[in-house]
Amino acid sequence: MVPHLITALTGPINELEQRILDATPVIERWFRLEWMEHTPPLYCSVDIRNAGFKLSPVDTNLYPDGWHNLSPDMLPLAVQAGQAAIEKICPEARNLLIVPENGKPSSFYLASLARLQEIFRMAGLNVRFGSIDPAVKRAVSYALPDGEKITFEPAQRTRYRVGLKHFDPCTILLNNDLSAGAPGILEDLHEQYLLPPLQAGWSVRRKSRHFQCYEEVAKRFGKLIGVDPWLINPLFASCGEIDIHEPSGGECLRSNVDALLTKIRRKYKEYGINEKPFVVVKADQGTRGMGIMTVRDAKELAQLGSKPTRGKALPEVPHGEVIIQEGVLTNERIHDAVAEPVVYMIDRYVVGGFYRVHADRGEDESLNAPGARFVPLAFANNTQLPKPGVKAGASAPNRFYMYGVIGRLALVAASYELEATDPELEALA
Amino acid sequence: MVPHLITALTGPINELEQRILDATPVIERWFRLEWMEHTPPLYCSVDIRNAGFKLSPVDTNLYPDGWHNLSPDMLPLAVQAGQAAIEKICPEARNLLIVPENGKPSSFYLASLARLQEIFRMAGLNVRFGSIDPAVKRAVSYALPDGEKITFEPAQRTRYRVGLKHFDPCTILLNNDLSAGAPGILEDLHEQYLLPPLQAGWSVRRKSRHFQCYEEVAKRFGKLIGVDPWLINPLFASCGEIDIHEPSGGECLRSNVDALLTKIRRKYKEYGINEKPFVVVKADQGTRGMGIMTVRDAKELAQLGSKPTRGKALPEVPHGEVIIQEGVLTNERIHDAVAEPVVYMIDRYVVGGFYRVHADRGEDESLNAPGARFVPLAFANNTQLPKPGVKAGASAPNRFYMYGVIGRLALVAASYELEATDPELEALA
Q1: Angle, to 10 degrees, between the axis of helix A207-225 and the axis of helix A24-37?
Q2: Which segments cross the bilayer (chains A, B) (predicted)?
């Protein structure tokens, strides 16, 4: 049931994999101690890239969709994790309100919401959808392929709470990334749990802050199991707010790209890696795989900083705040198509994952683009769990434990990040 | 993957099943609230019988073996539940000591221990086996079929703790039912967790106390979802200590059997059930399916109370304390052989189950006997989880949610039972 993966893993990654498998009890204990001090986001998905010599998270999504891409076999695991989460948050709860994305939902998004509803219903809650889209003025139902339907009702605000007519939730689960900013209807809810909290929305969140937290986590984890943190940490730099049409903006970007490429080149040399380093330039805010640019040489950005010339387009660099991240190749292949693992978590638990596969994209390109397909990571003789004593790399799915560890490191980083931006904690500081 | 079950479920059970499926959020919330007040045993297995018209636990094992009979697909669920348990008990823990049964282990028992070790190792602990068998004076290794081995080391007592040489566990997991009484080596351990606690051992435990607690749970649960508790509760009576060779012993047994059969007959009449009631007489202590006697009429016990006559054997009635329990038919069949579901739990979570199948036993007999086979309940399109709106009984595995509910009701009863016999709580009372 697990897709056959054509991987060509050589060099340090096998050593890293072995190190992680051997250290399982140490690693799990470390996570237990982290979760004594920090609160994981209620749910999270992490895109991972496995370059063979290096394994890194490249994107951490705090409003994951794509739940329908998980293998149905994984559902009991998600339900159990959901139960654990509810027990901690509000065991007396009867109702959960899910706030979906604004706008007309795609059939994929509806399938994802249906799965999410199923998970939390089976975990023991009545689950309904409350839209905060101003266009949703009364209940709208959408048919699902299996004959079921999903109904969006307009979320209603009372003085202290948000709910639906005759439906008062204990927890409000945001599946809406709040790109347009925190809407008034969700502000100052002191009687209900809003998860993830408002500061997880993309109007507040910055990728650079997440990866700064991740760097800290990676350093500590590297020390724990005795590996160079670089093997699991993508280097990055950020420029703050830049205007690529201004000389200062172009210059900042070029010098950062150049400095980062130099750092990566040094690391490649240290490990004897015969690949050409590259960086990825992307918006520091925002969730979709839009406006992502792969750069192998700062010279490619030579035109930046000048006014656009008629008839000569500038490279498509994102505007505003920009993060420059070390590019991590993906060496995973499914039937020759480039693949990257995506790991899903509920509370502190890994509950599944899938491969994002894109036949038309290269190993150094984002796969989060139209045309991507999804291959669930399914159970096959429990091989997604580590077996002590089994040679690392001997079986592809063994690798999933390692992906689960990297996913959870990003989850720890997300918990640091949300603490660092918590307005209540900030007020105390 | 799920075995095809020839079930002939008609009458109230389908209504009960529908009631349970519809009430999922109410039921799960009820369990959440129970677990706020009570602590579940670390692990537990429950034998369940499904008569079609009635569904009951018949045996609750606090030292479950048979872990190897669970489907490997269920392993991640067990690992996750194990993680949740460790987090609560001692998150800082590195080591877990498992105390196996005394005596030479069978290959089945070794396979079960290997699985248990795998579960807790993957949950993040170093796991070793400490034998309390006085015959184990130094480490003994047993080979497993897959080339691995299991080593029993003699458990060592220091003044305050139990462990092995160079192995100091935070928690000691008993997989030994302590039939011979609590051994000194495990007494007065105030610095370590001993799970299940000493009073769960068969020298203290009584089935009658468990079913008394279960009756209370069943009554409250029946009220919660609006069903007659009898539909999930096996009636019982107990005689205390009897000697079946004495007239008083025989008389006590006969009168209790007769009274219980009358009660059951009345219930059968109420529900229009055309079956012959029967009761099961078994020892109130002890774990194995030994000395279990099926009785359909008190007259079968006419000879009891007299001294044995040469050449004429008495019916094989257990000596000592005896429990008389309503017999629950099993209507589950796998390939024509009588089957009963067994549900496994870790902490508060159902982590798997299997069918105990016995080709040579009747539907009113114990299947826990030599010759039993085990068929894992495996995942098949997540059908072991309830689907709202799907007709009850339409798919066999749908039934597994219901079995998980009954198993957890017995788990709640076990937590009451362990509280009632807790020497520290008794001292406070």
Answers
A1: 140
A2: none
Residues of chain B with pLDDT under 70: 1-13, 287-291, 305-319, 377-399, 428-429
- ipTM (interface predicted TM): 0.85
Q: Does domain B72-203 have CATH number 3.40.50.11280?
A: yes
Give the start-to-end residue ranges of the domains of chain A.
72-203, 235-327
pTM: 0.88
Please give the interface size between A and B, counted as residue pairs whose CB atoms are below 8 Å apart. Answer: 109
Read off the pLDDT of each residue in A324-342 and give the average, rounded to a whole number.
Answer: 83
Residue A77 has pLDDT above 80, yes or no: yes
Strands A95-99 and A126-131: parallel
Q: What is the pLDDT of residues A394-408, one digit of tens each?
A: 333 456 788 899 999
CB contact under 8 A, B123 and A28: yes
Contact call for B124 and A31, based on CB within 8 A = yes
What string of H, E and C letters represents the secondary structure of A85-124?
HHHHHCCCCCEEEEECCCCCCCHHHHHHHHHHHHHHHHCC
B386: nearest CB among A94, A122, A388: A122
Residue from B289, B237, B242 nearest B259 by CA: B237
The partner residue sitting opposite B385, judged by closest CB among A35, A122, A386, is A122
Q: Chain B partners of A92 at a C-beta cutoff of 8 Å?
A: 29, 32-33
Using CB atoms within 10 Å of the CB of residue B122, give its burial: 0 to 12 exposed, 13 to 18 middle, 19+ buried.
Answer: buried
* CA–CA gap between residue B131 and residue B151 (Å, rounded): 10
Model confidence pLDDT, tens digit, residues B123-165: 999 999 999 999 999 999 999 988 889 999 999 999 999 999 9
* Nearest alpha-carbon partner for B128 in A20, A25, A17: A25
* Token pair of A203 as six digits: 């109007």
- Smallest CA–CA distance, residue A141 to chain B, in Å, is 17
